[in-house]
Amino acid sequence: MSWGTELWDQYDNLSFHTQKGIDFLERYGHFIRDRCLIEMEYAGKLRRLVKNYQPKKKEEEEYQYSTCKAFKAMLCEVNDLAGQHEVIAENLQSDVIREINYLVKDIKEERKKLLQDSAKYVAMINNQVASLERSRKNYEKAFKEAERALDNFQRADADLNLSRAEVEKQRMNMAIKNQHCEESKNEYANQLQKTNELQSQHYKALMPEVFRQLQELDEKRIRNVRHFMAHSADVERNVFPIINKCLDGIINAANQVNEKQDTILVIERYKSGFEPPGDFPFDDLSRGGESTPLILPGSGNTYVSSGVGAHRSESMTVKGTMSAGKLKKRVGLFAIFSSNKLMDVCSSVKNNLSSSGDKDDYSELPPNQRRKKILQKLDEMQAKLHQEIAAKDGLMKMKGVYESNPALGDPMSTEGQLNECSQRIDKLNSDIAKYQGLLQEVECNVSPAGTRKHELTEHNGIGNGSTNNLSNHNNRINTSLTDGRAPLGEDESLSRSASDSSVSIPAVGLNNRYSGETVSLGASRNSLANDEDPPPYYDIHDLPPLGTCTALYAFEATSEGSIPMFDGEQLLIIEQDQGDGWTRVRRQPPNVEEGFVPTSYISIHSS
């Protein structure tokens, strides 16, 4: 069925219906737009929720428990869920809302054009009907005038009193009116024929075509609404697999919760290492003499017995870490405002604070916790030491390249960096020796050797794992002390001159981090400067390329020995990164230039 044949006389209703259809399409577009806003708002609130419940830095120790780790993993999955809601909003925005806007614009333009055509056709038929009506009225007027003229002639012809001239005048007037009436009749007949033809064309061809196109336009709108609804559901269905993975991740995180492990971690965290207290001795006052002080093992607090109760001794310690003398010095802090010599008092306070001992030795902690902190500190310093040694080795290699080919740079330009690096290594070595001594002190004072060995074998990777390596730390301590050497080459020195350079680099491995073994690199560096044929490792023209790389970012050379590069440039790798963050590369012919570039600025391809 067609609108052109069935609704030939419903032009106004069809115009109203098509406008309502466009309004509905725009309303649906507004619904999708508001839904996108809700999805984005929901995703933003989820991300804000995750951010608010992220562990703070001061809470990091609490997050070693499996429940806290599972909660942190759940936060990551919830953050990913928020990302999927953002994907839904973005896809609806790009695939649905944009298409709806384009469709609304096209339908409005086509409907406007069709309505303009129909208005033109209606105006044509209305004009033709108006012309027909005017011609009909003219014909009617002329016909009446002709009748009056005929009547006047007949009366004049019958009147004998009128002259022949008067009668002839009435006859001529009658003839003129009859002729005019005939012309009006013919004009009316022509207009009637034109009007009938135009009306037939209007209702059988012109307007049905307009209605047919309006029907197709409305069907197009309805068809696209169906497509948009289905596509909106598909957009949400497409993220369901990832949402399910996020939910599976939350379930997996929940399955990782281990109550036994958490309770053991509590032991590892809060175990003091003190032995349980023994029985209180009986204080027989009848024998006379001073009362026997009672010491609570593990607390370091001394109590003096009396007949009724007990009170603290003046020489007691707080948590077994601070003497009474130091407490007295701290009490002196409150007397500074009553002194007239403010500067002297401030100086005295400073000395008192420094004499109270720094907290880097963790002396305020119980023995077991102190041992764990010292082991963690040793591991941190060892990692820093490895970094410094790698950086120093890289500087030595760069200096060797400069010595073999002064065109690349001045060997003396690395002197300052080498000296600073050596100073940092010496500082780390002294700190490691200090903490080794503290560790040995803790091991000697806490408990017998058999008890300590049992405690070491009792923990199987629970907590931070530092207790598992305690025996290795002890072995390294004993090795360093019996050899009479400071750990990691404490005696090493760095001397530099224009023609001779010697550096003592510690040889650090995974199993001898504190062994104190050193390797001298001075001889190899001097040989580079004195030999006529240096090894191929430092040859600038004969080194074969190890592979290729692509520059990820542009780099401006700011130091000697480095070369600039632009984004996307292809380079040849001559020497891999040795841990110092620099890779030696060579430009491809014809511009053969060689030097160092940051490793993080390039993408290395396998050769």
Automatic annotation (TrEMBL):
GO terms for cellular component: cytoplasm; plasma membrane. Gene3D superfamilies: 6.10.140.470, Arfaptin homology (AH) domain/BAR domain, SH3 Domains. Residues 1-262 form the F-BAR domain. The keyword Coiled coil applies. InterPro entries: AH/BAR_dom_sf (IPR027267), F_BAR_dom (IPR031160), FCH_dom (IPR001060), HR1_rho-bd (IPR011072), HR1_TOCA (IPR057870), SH3-like_dom_sf (IPR036028), SH3_domain (IPR001452). Its main location: membrane. One of its GO terms (biological process) is endocytosis. Residues 544-607 form the SH3 domain. The keyword Cell membrane applies. It comes from the Eukaryota. SUPFAM superfamilies: BAR/IMD domain-like, SH3-domain. Keywords: Cell membrane, Coiled coil, Cytoplasm, Endocytosis, Membrane, SH3 domain. Residues 455-508 are annotated as: Disordered. This is Formin-binding protein 1-like.
